[in-house]
Every structure is written in C-alpha cells, then in structure tokens.
Design brief:
Radius of gyration: 16 Å
Strand order of the largest sheet: 1-2
Shape: globular
Order of helices and strands: HHHEEHH
Number of domains: 1
Low-confidence stretches: none
CATH class: Mainly Alpha
CATH topology: Arc Repressor Mutant, subunit A
Structural class: mainly alpha
Distance between the termini: 29 Å
Mean pLDDT: 88
CATH superfamily: Winged helix-like DNA-binding domain superfamily/Winged helix DNA-binding domain
Number of helices: 5
C-alpha cells in the first residue's frame, strides 16, 4: 500500500515515532515517546489499535524480542516501518511541502 492520504494524523505520528526509536520501538516505549513528542496523552488502547491498523495496511511489521522474556514472562514486540510505510510517509511529506510552500509570509518562520 502506498496511499499516504489514507493515513490519519496519529498513524503518521506513530510511523515517524517508530522510525525515530529504531531498535527501541517497543509498545511500552512508543506511548511515552509520543506523549513527550506531541504533548498530548496517548492511551494504550489507541496505540495498539493504531499499530494493528498499520500492520493490516502493510505499513508496519513486528517481531518478538530476541532472547529471554520480558516482564510477566512475555517477550516484547519490536515494531518497524515497512518499505511501503516509508514510501507513504515520503509521499505525504512531499504533498505537505508543496502546500506549505510560499506561506512563510502568512505563517511566519515556523512555515519554513
């Protein structure tokens, strides 16, 4: 799937967070990272529901943590963005850049 415009705002933020965290992109890490990055609360339910949607769309995949078990005897799932996920983000970024272009005078320095 390469339909970036089928992505919601939270889905995009989650994909970007997974890319930022790299090998540390585990569910329990993603929520606090997003909260700190975007300045709003992220519920566990919303986080995992969105990860599930992204997986169904083929934009995210996960693998079990190698080695021993984590808390509660369960191995953690590490998430990664697929090639399709990266392509969708690139498409969306390109569209946003075109829309932001020329608005520096209206929006100020932040529009750059």
């Amino acid at each position: 799937m390469n339909d970036a415009f089928g992505l919601g705002e939270f889905e995009q933020m989650l994909l970007l967070s997974i890319l930022q965290l790299g090998d540390q992109a585990y569910g329990p890490v993603l929520g606090p990272y997003l909260e700190q990055s975007i300045g709003r609360s992220v519920s566990r339910g919303a986080l995992y529901a969105t990860l599930g949607r992204l997986e169904q769309k083929g934009l995210v995949r996960w693998q079990l943590e190698p080695g021993g078990s984590a808390r509660g005897g369960h191995r953690r799932r590490r998430f990664e963005v697929t090639r399709s996920g990266v392509a969708a983000l690139r498409t969306y970024r390109s569209a946003l850049r075109r829309l932001w272009s020329g608005l520096e005078g209206v929006l100020g320095e932040e529009g750059r």
